[in-house]
Amino acid sequence: MMPQLQFKDAFWASQSAGITSVSHRAQLAIEHFEDCSH
After folding, report:
1. CA-to-CA distance for 26 and 20, rounded, in angstroms?
2. What does the alpha-carbon distance between residue 21 and residue 16 come to, in Å, rounded to a whole number?
3. Residue 22: closest CA among 38, 33, 14
4. CA 2/CA 22 separation, integer angstroms
5. How far apart are the C-alpha atoms of 35 and 25, rounded to whole Å?
6. pLDDT, tens digit (0-9, with 9 covering 90-100), for 7-28
7. What is the pLDDT of residue 1?
8. What are the residues whose beta carbons fall under 8 Å from the beta carbon of 7, sequence distance 6 or more?
9. How many CB atoms lie within 10 A of CB 26?
10. What is the pLDDT of residue 2?
11. Is the pTM of this model over 0.90?
């Protein structure tokens, strides 16, 4: 039971980390676009 829980924790941690990096990249792209449009 414990290994399965640890796997789930690792899975969700990697999922949330991926989501964070994607949203961060989107934020950088938006800021870059706004800089170029000015």
Report:
1. 10
2. 9
3. 14
4. 30
5. 15
6. 788 888 888 888 788 888 899 9
7. 55
8. none
9. 10
10. 62
11. no
3-state SS, one letter per residue, for the chain: CHHHHHHHHHHHHHHHHHHHHHHHHHHHHHHHHHHHHC
Tokens of 18: 């991926």
Kindly state the tokens that stand for 35: 């800089």
| Closest to 16 in 3D by CA, of 8, 6, 5 | 8
Rounded Cα–Cα distance for residues 30 and 23 (Å): 10
Residue that has been written with the tokens 């934020």 in this structure: 27
pLDDT at 27: 93
Amino acid present at 5: L
